[in-house]
Each structure stands twice: as C-alpha cells, then as structure tokens.
Amino acid sequence: MKYVVLVSHGTFAPGLKSVLAMLAGGEREDVISVGLEDGMSADTFAENFRNAISGIKSEDEIILLGDIIGGSPMTNALEQISKKGLEEQTVVFGGMNLAMALTATLMKDDVDTELLKDSLISEAKNAIKEFVLDNGADDEEDEI
Fold first, then answer.
1. Which residues form a coiled coil (predicted)?
2. Could you tell me the pTM of the whole model?
3. What are the domain boundaries of the chain?
4. Contact of 96 with 66, CB cutoff 8 Å
C-alpha cells in the first residue's frame, strides 16, 4: 500500500487530513497525520509518529509531506522512518498545501513515483496565485 503521511507544527497536518476526508472520499487508512502541538516535546512527537506508522510494512511506500523542510516534525519523522528501515521507499516533500496533499492522495495508486513527484510539485506551485479583487476602481467615477 502507498501511504500519504502528513507532518506539521501545530494542528495543520490533522486539519489537512480532515479536509482530505471531505474531498477524497471519507476517512482513509492510507492517510496518516501527526502534528507537533504547542508545548509537545520532540520525544513525544517521535513516539506519536512511531505509533502512527506502526502498521506500515517494508513492502509499503510512503509519501511524506511536511509543512517546513528542516522543521522538527519533518526531521523527527525522517528519523523514525529511518529507524524502521523505510527510507528506501519514502519520498519527501516540504511546503505541503492542500493541492499537493489532495494530488498525492488521489494519484498515488494510479501513476509511477516519478510522475507523482512531478505532479505534486506542479500542483503545489499552481495552487499559489494572487486573487485580485475587482473593486470597480477602473469604472467611470460616479457623478455627483
């Protein structure tokens, strides 16, 4: 099985998992999330993460999405993945957003890993756009 594993500071990862449940067909056993909550120690996060991935086997694959490359959640998650001997079948991305997580969840079983990696980066980049509000400033001024 391929798993999408979300890690973040705070409740971003669990919140994103909740949104994925809305958009990708309910609760999914292939989506796992762990957040490093305010005041939580790195050891507690590592234990929570270790427990969350305990069902992942050596024949499974992991798509690890983290909020910040080099942040504590991602580095601790990678340490636990390594301790479990799963680093060979893990791809890792930082800067996760909803478009990236949704793409990973919906496409992971239908395309090869290289195409999936390209798609994740493309979707994440394309999701970032400025939305310009039209406030009517270009319209003719109202007469008094």
1. none
2. 0.89
3. 2-126
4. yes
Amino acid at 76: N
Q: The domain 2-126 belongs to what CATH superfamily?
A: Phosphotransferase system, mannose-type IIA component (3.40.50.510)
- The pLDDT tens digits for 26-60 are 888 999 999 999 999 999 999 999 999 999 999 99
CA–CA distance, 61 with 63 (Å, rounded to integer): 7
C-alpha distance across the termini of the chain, in Å: 68
Q: pLDDT tens, 52-105?
A: 999 999 999 999 999 999 999 999 999 999 999 999 999 999 999 999 999 999
Residue 7 dihedral angles phi and psi, to the nearest 5°: -130, 145
